[in-house]
Each structure stands twice: as structure tokens, then as C-alpha cells.
Amino acid sequence: MCGVDVNNELKSTCIRSNCNPDISSVLRQHYSKPYFLPDDSELSAIDWIFMGYQGPGASMHLDYVRRPSWQAQIKGRKTWYLLPPPECEDVCIPMNITVQRGDIILIDTNQWYHTTVIEGEEMSVTLGSEYD
């Protein structure tokens, strides 16, 4: 999801997913699975790249993907706003987490409602994938 607004300016966030195995093999030459995931953990066939400038990303939502995901903040700073699933509202609390260059967040976006806001003037670049 990328585009321009009515003034022909880039929208604040651009999201691309990739499921082409040839492109994935090239992209994955530039990163490895996060070290803290179990050795037998597998990444999905899909990689995501999120890029954008200061401002909001998608509105509060749940994802409908197969697995939990990790997302590595490559450049810039982004704040995640997380709301617990309804069945957890009595014991779970909303969270705000700001990630900066070098941080990795693990989240089950199928369970936690979420939105993000890119902070500061620097472009944000995030790379992610699902894992099991």
C-alpha cells in the first residue's frame, strides 16, 4: 500500500510485502533471522517492508496473517500503540512501545489491536516477517 495524496505528495507510510521466492532470496542475503528466535523456528515466505515519514500509519486494527511476527526497526523511530484482545481486557493493559534503529519487536498482530506513528523527521524503515 503506497500512494500519493491529492497534492501529489507521498503518503506518510508505504507498506510492501513480498512473496516472490527469487526476490526473497536476494532480500534475505541482507539479513538473518533474529538471534533470539529458536533454532528450529522458521520464517514465512513473506517479508514486509514498511517505509514512511512522520505521522500515523494504519488505523487501529488486527492483522489476519498466519503467525506472530517480528519487525526490525532499520532506520528512524516508530511508536506502537497496542490494545489487548477483548478476552484479556480485565487483566491486560494497553501498551505504547517506541522502537528505534536496531530494535526488534515481537508481536502477535492477530491478537493485539495495533497502530503505529512514525516519530521525528527521519524516514522510518522497518523490515519484518512472520515466524513460528
From TrEMBL:
InterPro entries: JMJD6_ArgDemeth/LysHydrox (IPR050910). Gene3D superfamilies: Cupin (2.60.120.650). One of its GO terms (molecular function) is 2-oxoglutarate-dependent dioxygenase activity. This is JmjC domain-containing protein. It comes from Trichonephila inaurata madagascariensis. The lineage of its organism: Eukaryota, Metazoa, Ecdysozoa, Arthropoda, Chelicerata.
